Input
Amino acid sequence: TTEGKVRPASSKLAIGISSIYTKALQVDPNKRYSSVEELKQDINKFREGYATIAENAGFLKQLKLLIKRNTLTCSIVLIFMLLISFILNSYISDIKRGRKIIMQQKDKAEEALILYQQEQKSREEIARHFSALLVESTKNNLHGFDLDKSLEYLNYAVEQHPSNAEAWLVKGYAHFIGHQFADAHQAFEKSGLGKEVAKAKK
Output
């Protein structure tokens, strides 16, 4: 070794022991082990599965040796992580599916609301039109003194369209003709006639 001729380590040796062999036989004393104890410690590291000082292992080498030393633990951790990943993906998928269903139901509810509003508007239009027809019919019946029939029409008219002032006014006249003065007064009030009279008196 004083001449610097060192037989290279066999390629069949593990990198760890090969590095120990090469370091121990370095010509330069500064590159060799400083003591037998240091050499012994490096050999023990290799035997226990740790990286030796001689091989100057990087992060990936250290990680590989760590996994090799703790194969069972690492396998359990890996299985656990895969299981957690599967559960998490299933949970996220369920949330997305639930959100999609909710959005579909929301769209259906909005469509139903629009249809309901349109239907209500159509019903109100029909009610107003029908109420006007009943009032006109009742006016004609008043001349024939068919009071009961007239009141029947008028009651239905104000029921279908409570804000129809003309219907309340004609209803008031019908009650007045039938000497139903309390009902007549109430109908006139709802028709707005009472307010008009009060304004006229002022």
